[in-house]
Amino acid sequence: MSAHFFVVRATVPDATKRAEFDTWYSKEHMPDAVKTFKAEKAWRFWSVSDPAVHEAVYQFADKASLDRAINGEEMKRLIADFNRDWPGVTRTREILVRAEEFGAA
Fold it and tell me: Strand 4-11 to strand 90-97: parallel, antiparallel, or no bridges (unpaired)?
């Protein structure tokens, strides 16, 4: 089975709030999400092309694991926590499946 990825893209329009958002995501939200999702790994990125864009990527062994994570009641809690703490930050979500991987083992 191929790894599946859950990608959350957030736009933080207020440049003065990006450092606070970065700290919150790093210290609170991502550790909570990884634990809740039982994700294998997770990454965070800030866009160089558009400094307002933040992406978080969560890796799962397969689609069933990802589906359990994002369709459970805990997902609603994570969304509610995000909305409470960052009401002006919009998000999109995407599910990707790894089609191929290159590079050194």
Answer: antiparallel
**Structural domain includes residue 105:** no
* CATH code, domain with 37: 3.30.70.100
Question: What are the tens digits of pLDDT across the range 82-98?
Answer: 999 999 999 999 999 99
Give, in degrees to the nearest 5, the angle at Cα 30 between 80 and 8: 70
Cα dihedral 93→83→46→19 (10° resolution): 180
Angstrom distance (rounded) from CA 32 to CA 49 = 28
Residue 103 lies inside a defined structural domain of this protein? no
pTM (predicted TM-score): 0.93
Closest listed residue to residue 28, CA positions, set 49, 4, 50, 56: 56
Backbone region of residue 81 per phi and psi (left: phi > 0; alpha: psi in -120 to 50; beta: other values): alpha
